[in-house]
Amino acid sequence: MGAASGAVPLRVGVLASGEGSNLQALLDTVHGHEALVVAVAADKPTAGALQRAREAGIETAVFPIGEFADRGTRDAAIADWLVAHDVQLVVLAGYMALLTSPLLGRFPDAVVNIHPSLLPAFPGIRAIEQAVDYGVKVFGVTVHFVLDDGGVDTGPVIVQRAVTLDNASDPAAVHEALRPVEHALLPEAVRLIARGAVARDPANPRRTVVTADETPAQAPHA
Ligand code: GRF
Questions:
Q1: pTM to 2 decimals?
Q2: Does domain 10-210 have CATH number 3.40.50.170?
Q3: Ligand 1, atom 10: nearest CA belongs to which residue?
Q4: pLDDT by residue (tens digit) across 127-175?
């Protein structure tokens, strides 16, 4: 597992493409406690996440695809930058580019992604629109590992949370309903990883074993 547990905060690097509300959720919760966000990168300079990072005094970088020969070359550059910041866990918080081996291979079991559906349903882009079009009554959010498996949103699930919406017809309204769930679930996943509470099941690589925080109650003094 890429993340260590213990008092030293987990060093987190975040990749984002959008407004960064999930990054903000990390900054408002686990940052400075179980985790320390030390680097935030985007694939375009207009990502609002960059401004949120700058306001928090966190180093930022932009890796536009146009500046690189191909995605693999770009991902190698991102990986070098993350390694230079001693990142232990890479969090994809609304990062819209697919990652390739030059990055995923450098962070085995240490890249996680948040996705606005109950995977394996509705992987890929426009997940909420897919779910609305399908007519589901239960929507949700998944945080999962991103493995170098050539898949899209196929990594082992870490945490999921369902949201029942009986008559959803507007993807934007569904997204608004899911946002608070995302902003609770991503920090929870990072917190669990920082505590060393997430392991891969050796009997089934698709499964994760999440150890609830069962700090044994102190026996009353006799
Ligand atoms: C979120 O809905 C997340 O689930 C998806 O991309 C969106 C990012 O939103 N992967 P934000 O940029 O964090 O506000």
A1: 0.93
A2: yes
A3: 94
A4: 999 999 999 999 999 999 999 999 999 999 999 999 999 999 999 999 9
